[in-house]
Amino acid sequence: MRNSKKNYTYPRAVLRQVENPAQYLGNEWNSIDKSEQMDHWSKKQPMIRFGFCFPDVYEIGMSNMALRILYDVINQREDTWCERFFSPQGDLRAWMQKESFPLISIESKTPLSEYDFVGFTLQYELSFPTILDMLHLGNVKLHSLARDETDPIVIGGGPIVYNPEPLADFFDLFIIGDGEEIIHEVIDLYQTWNREQESRESFLLRCAKIDGIYVPRFYEAEYYSDGKFKNIKKLEPEVPAKINKRIVRDLNKANIPLNPIVPNTSIVHDRAYIELFRGCPRGCRFCQAGMVYRPTREREVDLLVEQAQQIIAATGYDQLGLLSLSTGDYSELEKLSEKLLEFCNEKRVNLSLPSLRLDSFSFELMEKVSKTRKTGLTFAPEAGSQRLRDIINKDISEEDLLDAARIAFSGGWHTIKLYFMLGLPFETDEDVLAIADLVKKVLDIHREENLNKKLRKPQIHVSTSFFIPKAWTPFQWQSQISITKMQEKQSLLANNLRYRGVKYFWHEFENSTIQGVISRGDRKIGKVIEDVWRSGGWLESWDENFSYERWKNAMDENNLSIDFYTSRKRELDEDFPWDHIQAGVTKEFLIHEYEKAEKGLITTECREDCHYCGSMIYQTGVCLSHVASQAK
Amino acid sequence: MSQVKQNEYRYRIFYARSEIAAFTAHLDLLRLFQRTLKRADFPMAYTQGFNPRPIMEFALPIGVGIETRMEPFDVILTQMLEAQNIKNKLNQNLPNGIEIMKVELLTKDIKNVMSLVYAAEYEIEAENLGEAVETYYFDVSKPLIVSRERKGKTRTFIIREYIKDMQVLNQNRIKFISKAGSQANLRPDLFLKSLVNVEQISKYAALDAIIIRKKVYLKGD
Description:
Chain A has 632 residues and is of the alpha/beta class. In chain A, the strands form 6 sheets. Chain A has a 6-stranded mixed beta sheet, with helices on one face. Chain A has a 4-stranded parallel beta sheet with strand order 15-16-17-18.
C-alpha cells in the first residue's frame, strides 16, 4: 500500500497542440474522486489504488461495458479507489516519450507505477502490444518475474483470457471468468499482505489458491522438438492443475453501474446500456463468446426496466442500448420492449435496437422504435449456403432472410447490411459464390416489391470478415486459411458481387492472420508481442498503425512460423497451451461439435435441448431448466 | 425562434468554466449541457422535426482551452420555474469545472441570443505579454496584423481595428474588449499569434497562455 501523492498536470501548451485534449482530463459526470477519502483513510489504513487500464484510446475504452462494471464494483469498496488509464493518441504519446512524462490516471493524474493493482481488460488480440506500451509509459516493469515488492500487481481478465498464454510473461495473475466477485477476493487478500514480512512470490501463491485465479509464473510450458505444445508443468505443488472459470450465478443480484460515467467528449458508443443477459443459447461453432460465457443467464424484466430508468436519470443520456450476445433471444423481449418503449417515449429517450431475429415481432418492434427514421437493418447469416450454415450451426435459413428482406423493403427500409465470414471450415468456392447468389436474391425481392409500390433504391452493404479459429470453440483444431487464399476468396466474391446498389467491404487479410497467431498462441508468442512493441508496434488494431512486416520479422527472429499457428490443422489428440484454463465447456463436447460440423449436423439451441457442454456444473441460468429432466 | 409562444419561457443562463473544463470543445460542451438539463429534469421545449432536440442557443462559440466567467446561453422551458431554482438544480448536476453563475427569465424584447452579441472581454496571461503590449501594441506606428486561412481563403485581420479598451495589468497580464459575433469577430489566439509574428512574445508563451473570456456583451444590456 503505497498511497503516495504524485500528481501530474499536462501543460496547457501541450493540451493546445493535441487532438481532443478533453479525453485526457477526466472530471466527467459520475467519475469517482476519492482524494478526500484518501486523506481520511491514510490515517488508519492507506487507500488501495487500482489502475484500470484499457489498452486502446479513450473513445474506444470508455465504450466498454467491462470497464464500466468493474469501475463501479471496485469503487463501491471504501478501502479502494479505482481509476482509469487509456492509451494516449500518437501526438500526446510522442510528447510523453520525449519529456519522460509518465502515463497518468484520468482521475487523479497519478502515474501508473504508483498503483497497488494494474488491471488490463483483454478484449482483442491486437491490443496486446499496447498493453506493453502502457506499462512502459507508466514505468511498470514489463515482466512479472522482474517485479518486486514495490511494484504493482498486474492483473488481466476479459473475454479473450481463455488463452492467456501469449501474455503469461507480463501478467502476475489472470482472472478467468466474470470478474465482479473474484476482484473482491483478490483485494481482500491483498489487505492481508504485509510487504515487509511476505515476499511477492508468496503473496501470489496465496492468490493462486483463489478459485478462478491463474498465476502463470507457477506453471512452465513444455514443447516437443517440432514446436508443438507438450504440457504445462506445475512448479508449485499447491497450485491447481486446472483453473476453472468463475461466473456470476445470479445476474439479478449482480452489480450494474447505475451511475455510469458520462464522458465530456464523444465516444464510440455514447449511450446508456442495460445488460439483458450473459451467455448465448445458440452455439455457433466459430464463436468464442458463445462458448465461454455459458450458461445463458438472464436478468428479469422489471429489474432491467428499473435499471434503465435509474441510469437515464443519473446520466441524462437520450439513447438507451440493450446489451447481450444475441438480444433477439431474450426470453421476454416482447414484455421488456413494451415497458422500455413506454418509458423511453415519456422521457424522450431513443431506444436503439441491436440486430434482432428475423421474425415479424422484431419488425413490429423496430417499426415502433423508429417511427420516422428507418436506418439500416443488419443481418448476419455468416455463410452463403445452407450447407455451410449448418456446418457452423448458424440457425438462419434462406427463407428467413428473404422473408425479412421482403418485410423490410415493403416497410420502408432500404439499407440492409449483411455480414458473412470467409474461410470457414469445409468452405468451397460454391459456398463463397452462394453469398453472391443470396445478395442477388435480396435484390430480386426488392424488384418484386417495387412493382407493388414505389420504393427507394436498395442499398445492400455486404461485409466479410475472415474466420479465425479461437481457443475453446469446436473449431479450435481447424486450419485458418492463408493470406493467398484469403485474397482468392475475397476477389472471387468481389467479382461476383457487381450489382448496382451493392457495396462490398472486407477485413484486412494480414491483420486477421496475426490475430490468428495470437488467439491460438503459446508462451513463445509473448516474445513476439514484445519484439513487435519494441520495434514500434502499438495500437495495432488501428489499420494505420498495423504493420504485418513487423509481426513477420518478429516471428522470423524468434524462429517461429506463422503457418504453424494459423494454417496448421491440429489432430484431435493434440494438447493445447490453453487446456489448463477451463472455460466451462468440456473438450469432449467441443470434439463432439467438431464431428457434427464435419457431417453438417446442427445442434439445437440450449433452451430446447441440453447438449451436455459441461456448463451444468454452474447450476444456473438455462441449465436449471434441464436439471430436472437429467435427474430422471 | 425570436417570438415567444404561449407556454414557452426563455431563460438566459450564464456559466463559468475553469481550466479543468476549458479544453472541452464547443460541440461537446453543448452536449454536456443538454445532458445536464436532462438530468435536472426540466420541462424543456423541443425542436420540431424528425429528430427533436431540446432548444438551446449559445451566444458565441468558445474555443478549446479558453476559460469563461459569464457566458450566456438560452434555453426554452414549457413551464415557468424560479430562476434561482434552475440555477441550483443545474449546479447540482454539472461536472467539476463548470458552474452556473446566473439565470434570468426573459420577458421583453426577446431575440436570439446569438444575434445580440457584439463584443467580448478577455483577460490573458502569458510570459511577457504585458510588456509586449506596452511597448509594441500601444505604439500605433508598428503594424499588427495576422492572417488566417480557412477553406482555401486567406483573411487578414488588422488587430487594432478589432480591439478597444486594452489594459496592461502587469508584466504578463492584459485585458481588452474585442469585437465579437457574426459581424466581426477576433479570436484571442489570433491576437496572440499577431504578437508572435512580430516576435514580441514567444510561440511557447502564446501556446501556454491562460485565456479567460470574462464577459460577452449583448445589445440592450
